[in-house]
Amino acid sequence: MRSNLSATAKVYLVAVFVILYAPIFYLIFYSFNSGGTMNSFEGFTLEHYKAVFEDNRLIAILINTVIVALLSALIATIIGTLGAVGIVSMRSQKMRSTVLSLNNILIVSPDVVIGASFLILFTMIGVKLGFASVLISHIAFSIPIVVLMVLPKILEMNTNLIDAALDLGASRRDVLTRVIIPYIKPGIFAGFFMALTYSLDDFAVTFFVTGNGFSTLSVEIYSMARAGISLTVNAISGLVFVVTVGVVAIYYVITNRAKKMEAYNR
Amino acid sequence: MKFKSKASLIPYLLWVALFVIAPIGLILYYSMLDLNGDFTLANYQNFFTPAYLTMTLTSFWYAFLITFFTLVISYPTAYFLTKMKHKHLWLMLIIIPSWINLLLKTYAFIGIFGLYGPVNAIIEVFGFDPKQILFTDFSFVFVAVYIFIPFMIIPIFNALDKMNPSLIYASRDLGASAFTTFRRVIFPLTIEGVKSGIQVTFIPALSLFMITRLIAGNKVITLGTAIEQQFLVAQNWGMGSTIAVFLILIMFASMLFTRTKKKGGRA
């Protein structure tokens, strides 16, 4: 394929990249502003970053957000992976496609509908709004994406491997833990990662099911932004950006290495 | 396959029952309740009054505009990206902004579009008076398009990437113009990617509520804003659920629309 782009194409791509990144860098740039506004840069300061780290409430919210993300991603990955293995072993094609359609409902559902319906559900069965309701919701909306990431990996697996293991006397448990799971590990890993980003990025669902006492970063930023401009939010953006780029870099290196290993093994 | 694992399905099926089927049932049930919890169809009657129908139509119109502009910007971007040397690295760079928290990106525009913000500063350089850009429907559509671009690019990029390039050469060799090749070969072959891109944009665009609140003031009311309003402000869960029922119906329609494809995802 030609790798040379026309000049117009290059200008176009540059423009898209600039538009995508400008707002983020704009936020980060003013996070160092001593002036207190996002309009005129008066002088360099780190006071907004200091304010973030000195605000115990904000730190607690950050920790909450990370705990909810890690826990929900972990539990969703376990349930989703087992579910995907179960779906593949279903005999009836019709049952399988029904379950898959049900699986996709939560992926295409608007956040507001998920949030509202979960709010009704939790109120009905008496789950107190707060940490528990937020965690359960995050697990619930992360499961389908884990299934979608794991499923293709299982489908591409050669079933002879399983038959061979069974013929050689492996128990069903052994087949799962020693044959299937090692094979589909990249899918599981991708599923976990997606679940993590879903959880960290969610605002609407959390907004509905969080009570007064519990808050995640998204909900907190929303209330801060509604109150007007506060450069503390800019400092948070700076931190979030650095962490995101770091995580993406790690993920990129790991998946690249996995791909190379795979190529090597073949 | 000899291997069967009924037990591994149990937690998953429980999840399906409790968090997929039950919530939809509950929304349906609540949509038929009034404020006192008595059975009524008044919410549906209410929904078919001009006020709600206008709101639904405007919400559709905005979602259409947002999806349209997102597609128009994203398709060429995805196309050019597939022609780059390190295309997967570049795609990664497109995805990174989508991982920055949505609220932070929205918040940035409060500053950018503000009365004393950079956009107005540029306008002033050209000798015009600064205008309030924030709290207009323009700013709402702009920010929404900005947010959705990466999510639209990813499926289109994947579809383009999977396409066999020799088809394009064949088309050109057989005398088709660049435009004909695009219209008759490239676009039809990537329609699945476009469809999933539209799906991940259109439905969320109908239900956005935090951008309308933060960027559009209360100028724009989408179905999502109305649901949030009914549930969390007016505490009228019945009416909120009725609006949600319509959103769910639209969602099912969109699932049928993208039926042929196998998988989807927000990112």
TrEMBL record, chain A:
Gene Ontology CC entries for this record: plasma membrane
InterPro entries, alphabetized: Bact_Polyamine_Transport, MetI-like, MetI-like_sf
Keyword Signal listed: no
Protein location: Cell membrane
Transmembrane segments: 12-32, 58-88, 100-125, 131-151, 229-254
PROSITE patterns xrefs: ABC_TM1
Bilayer topology: Multi-pass membrane protein
Major localisation: membrane
Pfam families for the chain: BPD_transp_1
Residues in ABC transmembrane type-1 domain copies: 62-252
UniProt keyword terms in alphabetical order: Cell membrane, Membrane, Transmembrane, Transmembrane helix, Transport
Domain of life of the native organism: Bacteria
CDD domains in the cross-refs: TM_PBP2
GO biological process: transmembrane transport
Stated family: Belongs to the binding-protein-dependent transport system permease family. CysTW subfamily.
Official protein name in the record: Spermidine Putrescine ABC transporter permease component potC
From TrEMBL, chain B:
ABC transmembrane type-1 domain residues: 56-258
Predominant location category: membrane
GO CC, one annotated term: plasma membrane
A Pfam family per the record: BPD_transp_1
Record organism: Bacillus thermotolerans
Record keywords, A-Z: Cell membrane, Membrane, Transmembrane, Transmembrane helix, Transport
Transmembrane segments: 12-32, 60-82, 89-113, 133-157, 197-216, 236-257
Keyword Lipid metabolism in record: no
Family the UniProt entry places it in: Belongs to the binding-protein-dependent transport system permease family. CysTW subfamily.
Keyword Nucleotide-binding attributed: no
A GO BP entry: transmembrane transport
Compartments, as annotated in UniProt: Cell membrane
Protein name per the record: Spermidine Putrescine ABC transporter permease component PotB
Membrane-protein topology: Multi-pass membrane protein
Tree of life domain: Bacteria
InterPro entries linked: MetI-like, MetI-like_sf
